[in-house]
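Exercise 3.2. Students should predict the tertiary structure of the chain below and write it as structure tokens, then compare their answer with the key that follows.

Predict this chain's 3D structure.
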Amino acid sequence: MKFNGKDIISIKDFTKNEINYILDYAEDMIPYAKGDKFKNILKGKVLSSLFFEPSTRTRLSFESSMNRLGGRVIGFSDPSGTSQKKGESLSDTIRMADSYSDAIVVRHPHEGAARLAAEFSDVPVLNAGDGAGRHPTQCLLDLFTIREEKKKIKNKKIVLLGDLKYGRTVHSLAYALALYGAKLTLVSPTSLKMPNEVVGECKDLGIEPISTSNLEKAIRDADVLYVTRIQKERFPDAEEYNRVVGSYKVNNELLKSAKEDLIIMHPLPRVTEIDPEVDKTHHALYFKQAFNGLPVRMALLSLVIGGRI
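Answer key:
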């Protein structure tokens, strides 16, 4: 399959076969991600890392991925030190990064910013999250994690919990899980339900998500519980946030009603939605999930910049 020069903007831009190809290649990347093997396939290549919003895992895993493949990284993690403070437009910033690098990874607070960036760049643009929009590389590592742990995705019962309105990770993931034929249950406060657009996409793919506010009942036969934090930074009204924060909490008491092989995922960072006591259980998979960002993003960078190992 041809990925060289391809933008990674939305999971909807990929066919199921293309996604499988990326996930299969990510498996091959695991020993390179762990540092057990080395291959400088991106030696001499430069990645521009442009983060207009805070990030820990996404930014560091992209930078680590590039370094482990022999490439180099330039960019910023705080736009306050850039010409954005002088009024430079996003399009001009992208044009400059395009001149200096072989690929651009961008996170931005405004939905649609990554696709706009791709219009002004000749080198591939990878969307690291655009506002409350999409987060395709997180989606790919989430699919990778579920497939690695559960061996398949089709017919698996997956609960998406938390801020489904503003949480960009679940917007991408819901579509992808429907594409694979998973059974979805959506659990959230009433004011933070999954957008109708995303639910409609799932229905178009033949999946009818179940919506509920009853978490205990939802997880009884679940194979995967995917937890998200309440996205404080997305709320236009602080009072609205205060009304819903703490609506759900995953703890060991709750997990007594869950299946023995339930896995718990979270894109992180977490705040109060998962009690630290859960970390010691065999259900907790969120730190391994975070590691999986490395082989997946290494695979993507390799494919869009250089080619397969």
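Discussion points: The radius of gyration is 19 Å. The beta strands are 46-51, 72-76, 103-108, 125-130, 157-161, 183-187, 210-212, 224-227, 263-265.
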